[in-house]
Structures are given as structure tokens and as C-alpha cells.
């Protein structure tokens, strides 16, 4: 392999002791199930009610490829009325 090239495939190596963080953003129209899907993933619960979201954030730790990583999830609003400037 020529000098300066990186191995093909996979992610750059992770220095020992450094926890990767992935940022996820839930996007979609109002009432399509963004919060329900997020809650299922974060707390294994399915909310039956529809409580329109303004914006919620969740930080959880999960395993990806056998490695503990931090997820930073933002559950956004689907309500156009909440997105318009005053
Ligand atoms: N039957 C069924 N109902 C669902 C599903 N996903 C969500 N719901 C219901 O649909 C409604 C709206 O779900 P939410 O998760 O609050 O929707 P949302 O996209 O977060 O809505 P906003 O925050 O207003 O943008 C709730 O009453 C949920 O229980 C699903 O897969 N099946
Ligand atoms: Mg929501």
C-alpha cells in the first residue's frame, strides 16, 4: 500500500478509552410516530397518546459492533405551526 493511504473499509480506528458519540435526529411530519419510535428505542415503551413534541433530547449508551457508544438523539417537532417564526 502506498504511503499516505488508509485501509479500505471500516471506520478510522478509535483510540482506546475514547467513547464514540453518534448524533441522531428524528424528522417527519406531525403525528407520524417519531416520538413513539424514539421512546420504543430509548425506554422500550410505546406511548399510546399523541403529545405533540416541541423538542426532546435523549442521551443513551448502547453497543454498536460490540463497542459501547453514546447516542445523542433529538426528537423534533412535526408541527409546522411550531416551526414558523413569530
Ligand atoms: N397504530 C400505531 N400507532 C402509532 C404508531 N406509531 C405511533 N402511533 C401513534 O400515533 C400517535 C402519534 O405518535 P407520536 O409518536 O406522538 O408522533 P410524532 O411524530 O412524534 O408527532 P409530533 O411530535 O406532533 O410531530 C400516537 O397516538 C401514537 O401512539 C404505530 O406504529 N402504529
Ligand atoms: Mg413527537
From TrEMBL:
<dbReference type="GO" id="GO:0016020">
    <property type="term" value="C:membrane"/>
</dbReference>
<dbReference type="GO" id="GO:0005525">
    <property type="term" value="F:GTP binding"/>
</dbReference>
<dbReference type="GO" id="GO:0012505">
    <property type="term" value="C:endomembrane system"/>
</dbReference>
<dbReference type="InterPro" id="IPR027417">
    <property type="entry name" value="P-loop_NTPase"/>
</dbReference>
<keyword id="KW-0547">Nucleotide-binding</keyword>
<keyword id="KW-0342">GTP-binding</keyword>
<dbReference type="Pfam" id="PF00071">
    <property type="entry name" value="Ras"/>
</dbReference>
<dbReference type="GO" id="GO:0007165">
    <property type="term" value="P:signal transduction"/>
</dbReference>
<dbReference type="InterPro" id="IPR020849">
    <property type="entry name" value="Small_GTPase_Ras-type"/>
</dbReference>
<protein>
    <recommendedName>
        <fullName>Small monomeric GTPase</fullName>
    </recommendedName>
</protein>
<dbReference type="InterPro" id="IPR001806">
    <property type="entry name" value="Small_GTPase"/>
</dbReference>
<dbReference type="GO" id="GO:0003924">
    <property type="term" value="F:GTPase activity"/>
</dbReference>
Amino acid at each position: 500500500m502506498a504511503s499516505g493511504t488508509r485501509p479500505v473499509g471500516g471506520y478510522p480506528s478509535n483510540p482506546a478509552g475514547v467513547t464514540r458519540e453518534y448524533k441522531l435526529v428524528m424528522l417527519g411530519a406531525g403525528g407520524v410516530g417519531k416520538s413513539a419510535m424514539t421512546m420504543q428505542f430509548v425506554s422500550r415503551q410505546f406511548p399510546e397518546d399523541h403529545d405533540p413534541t416541541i423538542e426532546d433530547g435523549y442521551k443513551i449508551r448502547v453497543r454498536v459492533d460490540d463497542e459501547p457508544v453514546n447516542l445523542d438523539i433529538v426528537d423534533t417537532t412535526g408541527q409546522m405551526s411550531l416551526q414558523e417564526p413569530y
